Amino acid sequence: MRAIEQRPGIWRLSLEQIEATVADHLGNGRVRGNQSAPCLSRQVSMYVAKNVVGWSTTKIGRFYNGRHHTTVLHAVQKIERLRQTDESLDTLIEVITAEISPGTEGCFTERLQPRWTTALISAVADRVLREIRRLATEGKLEGSLAQKEGRLR
């Protein structure tokens, strides 16, 4: 068995551990097909495996049902772009990174900075409110939320 080469500051986690941690937040990404929820989970896992832990794109692709290394590169680039525009995704990746980093032993709350929690809650709340307003504008919102949204305008 070969010794695992580690770059300075990088710890080696198994791809299974990374997938399990991301799946706790976004759902299982190791499924066939291109449905949006598993696809995002898989792309975030690929991003974390490549950029945070340092796995090769070939090994990551093999782990995810034999996907080509260029698929992994596409996923990494897509998540990098999304992190620049989507605060909630950026914060989520920071939470996942804190959760899997050494010294946390499966519990990210010890290393999680209070501003991350607040930022994540604020980003999710903003996203939910935008979606509610969009649905109300399109007339697709029903029930008590539609009535409340009508009063808020």
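That was protein one. Protein two is written in the same sequence-then-structure order:
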Amino acid sequence: MWCRPFDEQTQQRIIDDGEAFLKILEKAHAERKYTIIGSLILDDEVKQIKGRRKREAVKTIMALFISEKVRSFSKSTVRDLKTVGLKDKDALHLAFAAQDHAKYFITTDDYISKRKKGIEKKYKIKVINPIDFIEENGNKI
């Protein structure tokens, strides 16, 4: 998600996702209505971004907008999330979100989105893409 504004802007979906994500960050920062949380797994993934310029750009916006960092997770939550079909890293991302009692998990990952019903039912975390988040919250975000 954090890379989307810096991905190659060759497809309309990438452009729209990136613009929506930046709008969410801007509104969250300006209005303090939402808390943007980071995690150790997010930090690890950012370190693995191959392009230095892209990696540094992502680090910069994370430093500006993440106001809280989750540093622990439940291993049993990870195991449980894998039973709904999530891959290891995806389960870790959501386990960190569950640990912090996040209301939303904003993602552009279709693989995660296809498994949202199981996640939402068990953890009460709404899995949503940035465009739908904006539409559901109107211009209030």
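The chain has one domain: 4-140. Keep this in mind for the problem set.
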